[in-house]
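Notes from the pairing session

We agreed to fold both candidates in a single pass and log them together. This is the raw record for the first candidate, unedited. Please don't reformat it; downstream parsing expects exactly this layout.

Candidate A
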Amino acid sequence: MNIDIYTDDLERAPDTEMYAAVVAFTGISAPFAERIQEGYQLDFKSVWNDSALQTVAAFANTFGGLLLVGVIEKDGRADQIPGIALNGQELKTRIASSIASNISPTPAYEIREIVFPHNTDRHICIIRVQKRKILYFLTKKGCKSPVYIRNEDESIPADAAQLQLLLATRLGPDAHSTDGVFAPLQKLPMELYVTEVNQNAPPPRQRAENFLQLSLMPEESLGIHLDLALEEKTRSIICATYPDLSSRADDPSSNLGASFTEDRSGNSYQLTYSQEYGDYQMRWIVIDNGAIYFVSQIRCYTANEGKIAKAEWSLADVMTHLDCTIEAAHALWKYLGFPGEGRLNSELRVGQLGLLTRSQPEEVCASAFYEQNGPGRRARPLSKDALRGPATSRPRAYAGIDLTFAMRLERRSEAIAVVTNQLLRNLGYAVSLDALRAL
């Protein structure tokens, strides 16, 4: 059984399987440099003490996190898993009592005590702390500060500026939400659209009717200053993330007619990729509050088994767009020093387009724009058996998901699968969620 200790039910498996999950998670049997490292949402403690208590408070005040008690770290990576000798005491009860007595109000958390399969006198505890829009105070006598926050791999006392920010984000209305709900998708920038050739009448180009729109909004305004350095960083992230866009635009002999163009305003930076062959466009917009927007044309013309090319949409391309956009947003937010939570909203308009399929091999997750089978391709084939389609699909779909730092960094496949499943179901399709997770 594969157990994700970041998200799965901590009580779902017996101690032997949970112990194996901790060993796999820490990578203790792997070379030292390949083991998972402490960070904003992960910490190791050899024992339960004041430092561990401060870490729980810091997680609750910052982004939430995972604390493993009974693990010795070295340079931020797991070095040994000796557990804790209890001598008849229950570790879980002792930790729960300590949290309830010394952190006010008591944070939302889960705790699982695990007995070593080869030594029942040794135990480990997993403590998974959730973030809430509440300020948590450490009341234990002798602590340096009543308020702790997480700063990369450290739990530190909040200074005056950090405390002011905590109070503002917890006690005041968020600039991007109403009653705790993230801004809806329709509040996208007016410039967020792509164009296509007008086959009927002038002007030569018109807004595309079939597209995928994505908005990724940080939980709180980042208040960034847009300048040339940030524009260049944004462009380099996009070129490094989306398969082959940079090489296509930089290769004048490819006959694709691919190019990048830029535009900017006082509070936004806009980058557009255009490709004459296939009449394809993508656009990204970065706003000074840290929001990142993406839109892409999804109509493609394909010739299948020698038949005349017809207009269709590609599920694989939509999933690749999702994958790349989440990765690009994570890279940019990390560059800006924001490891917090965000929200992904999506809209897919397929209109009357049919879903692109291949008969050799039978697959419905076929690529059109990301056609190549090399390392740049993201989404892999999805068997037709994994998807059941309606007689007539609906023309548009919406989907969204909350994105934690850990999900953006290590579990993008889960976010992509959940959003894709929502989009397909809203179009009228039924799909295997497990099959989507495997792509």
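Candidate B (folded immediately after A)
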Amino acid sequence: MGRIRILIADDHAVLRTGLRMLIGSQRDLEVVGEASDGDEAVRKVSTLRPDVALVDISMPGSSGIKAIERIREASPATRVLVLTMHDMPAYLRAALAAGASGYVVKRAADSALLAAIRDVHRGRAALDPALAASVVQSGLRRRGPAGASPTTPLSQREREVLELVAQGYTNQQIADHLGLSVKTVETYRARLVEKLGLQSRAELVRYALDSGLFGGEAGPTP
């Protein structure tokens, strides 16, 4: 059986070098390319067709979340394994929704990363245990009565509020733009923090910016 072909996408050259050495030490793995941003990752995946793309979700250019979607479109056979510093459930959910097969936090042991690469190549999910458990518990809390379906993660109005929050607008500006009261906007923001599993408004903004998922109409003039 041939070796598993891997592309590394991360904007830190030192980390890419370390990963190349780690992966290269394994008889069944080989690094076939590197990329320093999301756009380059998509281009190289299109050309190299690796078995696994090891992708950070905080890179210059096309965000890692958007890059996952584009990688899956460019090479459906390539499995995407996220390797990131972000240990929040919202990032895991966004990565999986974009098409990732696995999610490993950078503090994980080398052996855990190597096992994850092999697992996603075999078609299995490889998720950080603590984050996966948190996502499951969050889903159970939102499920409601037995047999009921989980609520939709974000409504259209919640997405609109999240986009405007990410763009830096105040509650008053958001309320004026959407025709809502300031109190209602505050309620939406609190609901977003709860639904996405984030602990603060700063994390909410960071999530919206890094995910690249919210690019709708222009907001109000500051």
